[in-house]
């Protein structure tokens, strides 16, 4: 909800927008970013509302639909956007570190991803050196990072 409110405020308050653009010439795409924030805020609000309705009504169908939508979106991010698009990469890394998880369901989600199969310039930090695939550094636990700071996850 906060994302939605902030994006609406940024759209309506022209002084803030003008000040931001004056601060840095690279912010010419300011309004594009604000519209993206607005769309994300709307989607998040709708998903939150549907999740609350499903929980209140104890509607398994609605809760399953919300869960499947979120899983599908996250899996698409893993497959197509991670390693290509920096905001997606940073966001997914933050989620994985915060939840102490790897992938949407497991580390195997990464095996068919762009990151694992096409991103040759990215370092091998993953499931195995035998062309099995790789996972991002954010999949590694604190213990794994302490023991293998560069090759965490390599077997």
UniProtKB/TrEMBL annotation:
Pfam families: Tetraspanin (PF00335). GO terms for cellular component: plasma membrane. It comes from the Eukaryota. The keyword Transmembrane applies. It is found in: Membrane. It is a multi-pass membrane protein. The keyword Transmembrane applies. Its main location: membrane. InterPro entries: Tetraspanin/Peripherin (IPR018499), Tetraspanin_EC2_sf (IPR008952). Keywords: Membrane, Transmembrane, Transmembrane helix. It comes from Trichinella nativa. SUPFAM superfamilies: Tetraspanin. This is Tetraspanin family protein. The chain crosses the membrane at residues 33-56. Signal peptide: none annotated.
